[in-house]
Amino acid sequence: MVDYVTIARIIEIYTWFIAAIIILFISGIGLFYQKKFNIKTHYYLFLIPFLLLIFVLIQIHIFVEESIITEIMEAFSGLIALAFTLKTYLHMTRGA
């Protein structure tokens, strides 16, 4: 018999793991741009949403039950990552 809760949890963990990798990739782009063009991109700020996502992944994996706190942390880290990505994009395109 198929356990849909386990499948849903695995898909959620996989999704946020991929999101954490994408955040690190964007941070690497910011680091490259800062070294190449000597413009501060504050790439190290991407560590905040990355660590939040890793913390949520550990919390979901170890503590089987999800709570409203994990949902808020997921949303918060996604919004932070979006804001930092937009900031990096504006620096790279001379919008800021």
Describe the protein:
The protein is mainly α. The protein has one domain. It contains three helices and no strands. The protein starts with a helix and ends with a helix. The model has no long low-confidence stretch (mean pLDDT about 85).
* Mean pLDDT figure: 86
Q: Stretches where pLDDT falls below 50 for ≥5 residues?
A: none
Strand % is under 5%
Question: Which class do the helix and strand fractions yield?
Answer: mainly alpha
Shape: elongated
Salient structural properties:
mainly alpha, 96 residues
Task: Give a brief description.
The chain is mainly alpha-helical. It has helices at 4-37, 47-62, 68-92. It has one domain (4-92).
Topology:
Elements: H1 4-37, H2 47-62, H3 68-92
